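Form 7-S
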Amino acid sequence: MRYAEWGAADNPRVLLCVHGLTRVGDDFSHLAENLGDSYRIVCPDVVGRGRSDWLADPTLYGIPQYAFDITSLIARLNVDRVDFLGTSMGGLIGMSLAGQPNAPIGRLILNDVGPRLQLEALVRIGDYVGEQKRFADFDQAIEYVRSISTGFGLRTPQQWRELTEPAMRFDGSNWVFRYDPGIALSVKGPTPESNALAEAKLWQLYDAIQGPVLLVRGAESDLLSRATAIEMTQRGPRAQLVEIAQVGHAPMFFDADQIAIVRRFLLGP
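Output:
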């Protein structure tokens, strides 16, 4: 599993940032550059994505494998605990770890994700993940990423280019995504029954979290409803909730105002 670091390598204060389903650790580069004066920031490419290896058995792609890998990474960092920021899938990994007894997680930031996820959004995500898109030029890749990621709320063409570049590779003839198509197996064909079962397990983990939690929600998110976000402020760790206007699923922390939200939670009293 490949990961990138920012900040002083001997800083005992570590922030672990974990990306969404088809994304990469470089998504957090703007945030990491801003917090590097106060934190050692570690951003992995979850297995099957980015520059990390692909699994020989694609049926293993899923939260249990990812949580095991992240636990191994924390041990490698040689610290007793880390603060954790997880976007979407990364937040599910964070809940899976923070909800365990004696978890090595201090402050937890859940970015547009919670125990209850809207089925329609899960179907939408599963549909595009399974498509093996190929692009003749990089501008076509940018436009496609923009079309499936409008909820990110990026504001400029340069931001879309910065978002797309680390998630793509050139295979000699076309631009293709840097993820194993096999990751689609874990998100294909969700049903009301499977979604309800997953929700029950996630609420159990969420309610067991002991440390402080910040919930960041895109105000127009189709994955995390406002009702679920409010419920998360009223049970378990009673998350602090910040909603970001004109953003859906999910805020990307490219902009200074979004980065400031994270900085206040991590470095405030």
